[in-house]
Automatic annotation (TrEMBL), chain A:
Record-linked PANTHER family: CYSO-CYSTEINE PEPTIDASE (PTHR34858)
The keyword Protein biosynthesis is annotated on this UniProt entry: no
Keywords: Hydrolase, Metal-binding, Metalloprotease, Protease, Zinc
Domain of life: Bacteria
InterPro entries, alphabetized: JAB_dom_prok, JAMM/MPN+_dom, MPN, VirAsm_ModProt
One Pfam family per UniProt: Prok-JAB
Organism: Actinoplanes palleronii
Domain annotation MPN: ranges: 19-142
PROSITE patterns (UniProt xref): MPN (PS50249)
UniProt protein name: Peptidase
Automatic annotation (TrEMBL), chain B:
Listed PANTHER family: SULFUR CARRIER PROTEIN CYSO (PTHR38031:SF1), SULFUR CARRIER PROTEIN SLR0821-RELATED (PTHR38031)
NCBIfam families, per the entry: moaD_arch
Keyword tRNA processing: no
Keywords for this protein: Membrane, Transmembrane, Transmembrane helix
TM annotation in the entry: 82-102
Name of protein: Molybdopterin synthase sulfur carrier subunit
């Protein structure tokens, strides 16, 4: 199942269980996941504080270099989080790929989810020809799926 | 001895919403005790029941990961800046295996 839909352009910003994200960023995330396949890929999309708009794609190293586990390198993590702080940005999206299973948070994902304001985007690359992209809020161990509203920057104003 | 501590969103319910708090201590362990006295309960989110650093957080002294500085025994000095970040990790692997892999 793929919940990603081409959304109406008026939805800019995210409220009530929708991740609105630019198609070029989604393409870059999927490309990153395909490039690192069969290892899991991970990264962040930063956005201006309080806007809930994912604007700046930051692919991160998977320090675990594993097909079933990902972990940000602790020093890269600090550097990127400081950079966001300096730019008045926050991690709007935290993404990773599952390379042999569905794009749904595992127990491990839920246990580690420590950014209650972030959209947790999962990409499954198990099918070579189709991408499964789903987004979730993970707060206090509770997973809530949300719609992914993919918009096109060329018509967004 | 004043040490600045940057608190992540997920732990700000212990600090009344404050993003930066001050603490004191000669070691990370001492600092965490001091923080817990001021922000009751925060220690339990940083240190496990067994007394080790929690696998779900990364703690940095200035620009260094404390795991490379002696973890809880890391020496602190006046003016140091501590950053706490929730570890970003996960994946399809089962939780027990993931924890073992992290060695935390």
């Amino acid at each position: 199942m793929c919940l990603a839909t081409l959304g109406a352009t008026k939805y800019f910003g995210n409220v009530n269980g929708v991740l609105t994200i630019d198609s070029s960023i989604v393409r870059a995330i999927v490309a990153h996941a395909r490039r690192d396949h069969p290892d899991e890929a991970c990264g962040v999309v930063a956005g201006p504080l309080g806007t809930d708009v994912p604007a700046r794609h930051i692919p991160m190293d998977n320090a675990a270099r594993s097909m079933t586990f990902y972990e940000f390198d602790s020093m890269e993590h600090l550097r990127v989080w400081r950079e966001m702080d300096d730019n008045d940005e926050e991690p709007v999206v935290i993404y990773h790929s599952h390379t042999a299973t569905e794009a749904y948070p595992s127990r491990t994902d839920v246990s580690f989810a420590g950014e209650p304001n972030a959209h947790y985007l999962l990409v499954s690359t198990r099918e070579p020809d189709s991408d499964e992209i789903r987004s979730f809020r993970i707060v206090d161990g509770v997973v809530t799926e949300e719609e992914v509203n993919i918009v096109d920057a060329t018509v967004k104003s | 001895m004043a040490i600045e501590v940057r608190v992540p969103t997920i732990l700000r319910n212990y600090t009344g919403g404050a993003k930066i708090v001050e603490g004191a201590g000669d070691t990370l362990s001492g600092l965490i005790d001091d923080l817990d006295a001021k922000h009751n309960g925060i220690k339990g989110r940083l240190i496990t029941a067994e007394g080790g650093l929690h696998r779900f957080v990364n703690i940095y002294v200035n620009d260094e990961d404390v795991r490379f500085l002696g973890a809880l025994e890391a020496k602190l000095n006046d003016g140091d800046s501590i950053t706490i970040l929730p570890a970003v990790a996960g994946g399809a692997l089962g939780f027990a295996a993931a924890a073992a892999l992290l060695g935390r």
